[in-house]
Structures are given as structure tokens and as C-alpha cells.
Write a structure and sequence with these properties.
Number of domains of chain A: 2
Distance between the termini of chain A: 38 Å
Radius of gyration of chain A: 21 Å
Number of strands of chain A: 14
Oligomer: homodimer
Number of helices of chain A: 13
CATH topology of the largest domain in chain A: Rossmann fold
Order of helices and strands of chain A: HEHEHEEEHHEHEHEHEHEHHEEEEHH
Structural class of chain A: alpha/beta
Chain lengths: 372, 372
């Protein structure tokens, strides 16, 4: 955030500046840059970082980085009015002034190239390709002075910045903290994986992504109600922190897993869970691509220890949750429901088996499915 | 092991050498030295290593090392007939020739000093103090030439040397392997901890100690029957290796935990489980002393990643195994039986609750308790 006097000087200048309205993803990114969640980024990427991320999955400095953090013009907008070396006033979707971009560089990007390298597909059905289609052809890069943070109606008591989580972890005496990224309700499978992780770490950060997701994902407020219900009933309160993660989903699978991991390091976490098809969508990525991509880097470069898990299920043979790594049972002894099955059950008001989900969570989802 | 020609030369010489009969612990140690399980040791410790282990918990070279690996004279035996610079023929308890000690150094040790520093007690009730009482006052140190390995009636197909386990792990494609040291049957609590470990490692080595234990520990053949029953029914066979660990127990708690960890590194393991009161006996050590001692060393020095766990129990609230780290439930919702309770049940032929132990394991123990 800009200092007080600088803030007033910049605020006073904004009416005379070229202006740009940020979309939801860009607003999330601006906030994450402002609070240090995307450290070492101090603004939207200039071309050298952008190219380096596309071609080498690293910032120009060498730090592993998965996806571009970029500011785009609207489709059809001319880049003429944005001059390198000048400031640009940035507004949120509701006309709120957010900050000033000290424009260093503007360039016309190649959407196909970005899609191929970051999303590994050019298929128009991929939500990441749809996003690229929705924006203009120009990116503006440069350092940011953030004047006001985006304001939200929801989850404000769960909005913890990296500085907040770091202090909190210290206060709670956590020497090791594992972060769990999620954009879904937590059923038994993920409850199990977070608890495995918690056995080897002092603390657990349940860190649901609440930035923009695709339309058919379960809304964040329903998910938050599920998490709270679950934590109240089935987790030890003094070891678990629930906070929201403001990033927008890219659905970039392996590339996005790197972003998710590095940002959680910035929140003070020491461990990060990477499950099957992390940040994936449809069948664009192999089940373990998002785990394998980390092999391209040394553990020191990543700087946060990865816990790579397989899908979990209830195993009738052992009477416990397990994965293929810990259960020798046959398929028919495993309780694994498909997303489609579960959605159908919830819509009909049926509670899925307790081996699949906790009844308290099912009830929140049934209410949402029937009233939503 | 000595090379063929050297072996014959040494064998031929043994009748003319001073001779020493090894006790059970020393025989185990000789074997472990011979197969590289105690690498870098190449023989029984000389005084500089011994003193360094007592005073600094390290070999003279600096490598972390918890307990002395030493060869003792019998009580009342004179050290006169053992001359520094000469060879000593070493025999097993059954008159089997085991090897030759190239005696470098003999010295009179201070049992109180060793007990205080290694066992952290001089209490005569501690099995380690009883052992010290059972041996003479002199230690003989020097390099070993092993001529014949101790022969065993039992568990021969489970006797895997470090070279065997390393090859096996490679063949099975394990990049990470966690070792579980145990001298007890595995009930649900330890099954759970090994499975937590297996979720984050490719393979699991169940590595029960079968060297000498105190008289009231459950005999190794009963335990082996329990492990086999458990693995057959409740573990994925392709990820778990069962092999015996020939060391004799010291019951030295934290000090012995270091030995257990370093030796498992020699077997090719990357991770090692340290539970509550590891290698402890009675109430000589704090519950987490054997975990805390590793904080005195850097992870690089130890060279094997420690998984430090708390006691596990069945949690009725969540319907799953848990520890205090993962369960918020009240004490009355936890199924935790004392060893005394379990022994009493087994003796009466009663199967403990399935939340405590698998019925197949209980049946093996009941048979042993009633017929043993």
C-alpha cells in the first residue's frame, strides 16, 4: 500500500490519468500483490517476466512461477492512450479507485501462444481459453501503488493477509503449517488428506479460493458454510485456521499448482497439499501432472514442502479412509462417488453415505441445491 | 565379511588366538557391523569414539551416534590375556566362530558414567543398567574381520541386509521409504501411524527388532505371526516390506532413537517414524524426549527424515483413528486401552475391541497368551 502522503498525492492525480477498469481476476491479483501474497511481484508483469514464465516457468530472476499475472485492456480498446512511463488509474468493477499502475511496458500478446504454454490447450471449452477470449490483445506491465483495497461484503473475518497468518501461526506455536487449497466442499476424502498432513505438521490452514471460479463450481458462501460446519464438528480447533484465498481460478492445472504453492509460502506455510488433478478441469491434464511439474525444480527453489496425495476413499475392508497407497482392497470394497452422483443425490435431498461426506456438510449442500 | 583367502588365513589362525565369547547383544552388533547396518562402524568402538558418543552423542568423526557399540569382557575376567595390536577370536554363544577382532585398544570403563550419560539413570531396575551389571569392566575396541555370520533358526526369509533392502526398494520403484521400528505387535494405533507415513512415502518397511529384548516383551515369533496376519489382511502388499532388524534393545530412549534412525538410513530408508516414548521403558524418559533429541542435530547430519507422531487412538466422534493433533474429541470419546488391560483380556481369551486391534492379530496373541 502506498504511504499516506504518497497516497494523497496519487489520489489527487488520478482524475488526470488514463484509466482502466479491472475485471474480477485482475482485482484479485492486485489485492494479492498489494498484501505480499504474490511476493516478489510488486506489480503486473512486464514482458520479460511474462515471456520467462511462458517459456521457462520462472520469473526472470529465476524464481519458479507458473502463470502470468497480467493486466489487460478490454477487447477493441486502443493501447494509444496508455503511455509507457506514465501512470494509469486502476478502478474496480464498482468504480472504486484501487490504485495506480506505473506503466513500464505495454505489448500486444499472442493468445494462442499463452494458451498453449500455460493452459496446454487451445480448446475454446477450457475456462482459461474463454477468459483469454474475453480480454483485449494488450497487456500493461509495471509497478503498482495500491490506494484502496477491494471491498467485500462477505467473509471479512476470514480475510487474513500473509502478515496476519504469519503472526497467527507464531502465536499458535506452529513451527510447521500445511496449507490446503480448495474450491470445493470438503468431503471425507479431503478431510482424510488434511488430517494425514496435520499428523506431520503442527497446524493446518484451510485456504479456500474465493476469487472468481467458473459458473458451475459451488459458490464460495455455500462452501464456507460447509467448512465451518466441518471444522466445528470434526477438527481440533486449536490446530486449524480457516481463511480465504482471494485468487481467481485459472484452471491451469500443473502451472497453477506452482502459483498456489508459492503463494502459500508467502502466507507462512511450510507444507502444501497437491492432490490428484490439482487446479484441473475436465480432462485437460493427467491426474498427476500437477505433482510431476514440481520435479522440474529443486525443493530449495520451491521453498515449501509438497505433500503429494492420491485420491482417498472409504475402504470397507479396513473400516477407514485410505488411498491406493495404503489400501490393498478391491474396487468393490471402496466407497467412491462421482461428482455427478453426489450432485444428483443432493438435488433430490438425499444425504450421501456417511463414508462419503459428513451429514452436517450434506445438509448445508442440500439446502443450497434446493434453494439455490 | 573377510575375503576368501583372508578368511582362510584368519580361520587357520584362530586356535592360537586369545578367545572371547560374545553375548547376545554383542553377537547382534557384530552382525550389524558386518552387513553395513551400522556403517560407518567397521568394528567395536575404541575409546575415542566411545568417549565422544558418551559426551557429545557423536562419533569422533562428528556423525550423530546415540549409544556405544562395544565389546566387553565377562565379569571377573582379566584383561591381561588380550594384548593391544594382537587378534582376538570371537565366538558365538554356541561355540560358532564369528570373527576376529584386531584389538586396537582395551580400557576399563566406568559403568556409572556410561549409565548416566546413555541411559540417563543409574537405577538398577532399568534393563540397560542390568545389562551393564552383567558384563565385566573392560571394553575391547578395534576393527572386525567377520568370518561367519551368526546362524538362526528363525525368520531367515525375513533377514534382509542393507544391500538387500536397497536393491528391493529400487526394484519396487520406491523413491521414498519409511521405516517403522517396533518391538510390539502392531495394533490399530501403529497401523494408523504407518499408514499416515505411507501416504507421504512410496514404501513402508516394517522392521521389527528381533535381537534380545527384556523378558516380559512379547517374543519375536509371536510378533512376526501378528505382523504377517496384519499385512496379509490390511495393507497393500506391493508397498510394504517386512524384514527383521537384528539389533538388541538398549531401552535407552532418546539415545537409542538416534541409533535406530541412523541404522535405517543404512538400510536405504528415507524416513523414520519416531513415536511417543520411542525405545523407552518404564517412566525413565519424557514422552517426547526421543523426538526432541533430534533437534540437537541438523537434518543434514541425521540424513533421514523423521516423522514424529503422537499416540493414536480410535475417535468415536469422527469414526476414525486419530491423535491429539487431528482430533478435537473429549477423552471419553477416545478408545485407548492400557497394556495391562489388553494383556488381561488376551489371557482370558477375550478379543479386545476392533477399534483397538484387528481380530486376526488378537487371535494370534490369545493363542500365545494361553499356550505360551
Amino acid at each position: 500500500m502506498a504511504l499516506c502522503s504518497e497516497r494523497e498525492r496519487l489520489l489527487a492525480a488520478t482524475p488526470r490519468l488514463a484509466r482502466l477498469e479491472l475485471n474480477s481476476r485482475e482485482t484479485s491479483d492486485l489485492e494479492m500483490i498489494a498484501v505480499g501474497a504474490m511476493s516478489p511481484l510488486q506489480g503486473f508483469m512486464t514482458r520479460s517476466d511474462y515471456d520467462s514464465v511462458l517459456d521457462h516457468t520462472r520469473l526472470k530472476s529465476g524464481l519458479p512461477w507458473g502463470v502470468p499475472i497480467v493486466l489487460s485492456l478490454k477487447p477493441g480498446d486502443s493501447a494509444e492512450s496508455y503511455k509507457e512511463g506514465e501512470d494509469v488509474a486502476l478502478y474496480g468493477e464498482n468504480e472504486q479507485i484501487l490504485g495506480v499502475l506505473h506503466l513500464e511496458q505495454k505489448w500486444k500478446m499472442d493468445k494462442q501462444d499463452e494458451a498453449r504454454k500455460i493452459l496446454r490447450t487451445e480448446d475454446g471449452a477450457h475456462p482459461g481459453c474463454q477468459y483469454l477470449k474475453s480480454i483485449g490483445d494488450w497487456y500493461l506491465g509495471g509497478r503498482l501503488s495500491v490506494l484502496d483495497r477491494p471491498r467485500y461484503e462477505k467473509f471479512n473475518k476470514f480475510r487474513l493477509d500473509p502478515v496476519d497468518t504469519r503472526v497467527l501461526f507464531k502465536t499458535l506455536g506452529f513451527k510447521s503449517v500445511v496449507a490446503f487449497q480448495t474450491r470445493n466442499p470438503i468431503h471425507r476424502a479431503h478431510e482424510y488428506l488434511t488430517k494425514v498432513a496435520l499428523e506431520i505438521c503442527d497446524g493446518l490452514l484451510i485456504h479456500p479460493l474465493v476469487g472468481e471460479t467458473k459458473g458451475d463450481d459451488i459458490p464460495a458462501d455455500v462452501r464456507m458454510a460447509c467448512y465451518q460446519m466441518l471444522l466445528e464438528n470434526y477438527y481440533p480447533r486449536q490446530r486449524v485456521v480457516l481463511a480465504v484465498y482471494p485468487q481467481a481460478m485459472r484452471y491451469a492445472g500443473p502451472r497453477e499448482a506452482i502459483l498456489h504453492a508459492i503463494c502459500r509460502k508467502n502466507y507462512g506455510c511450510t507444507h502444501f497439499i497437491v492432490g490428484r488433478d490439482h487446479a484441473g478441469v475436465g480432462s485437460y491434464y493427467g491426474s498427476f501432472d500437477a505433482q510431476a511439474i514440481f520435479d522440474e525444480f529443486s525443493p530449495q527453489e520451491i521453498g515449501i514442502t509438497l505433500l503429494k496425495f492420491e485420491n482417498a476413499f472409504w475402504c470397507r475392508k479396513t473400516g477407514s479412509m485410505a488411498t491406493a497407497k495404503t489400501s490393498g482392497s478391491a474396487a468393490e470394497e471402496r466407497v467412491m462417488l462421482s461428482g455427478t452422483q453426489v450432485r444428483a443425490m443432493l438435488k433430490e435431498g438425499k444425504i450421501p453415505p456417511v463414508e462419503f461426506t459428513r451429514p452436517e456438510v450434506a445438509r448445508v449442500l442440500i439446502d443450497a441445491a434446493q434453494n439455490g
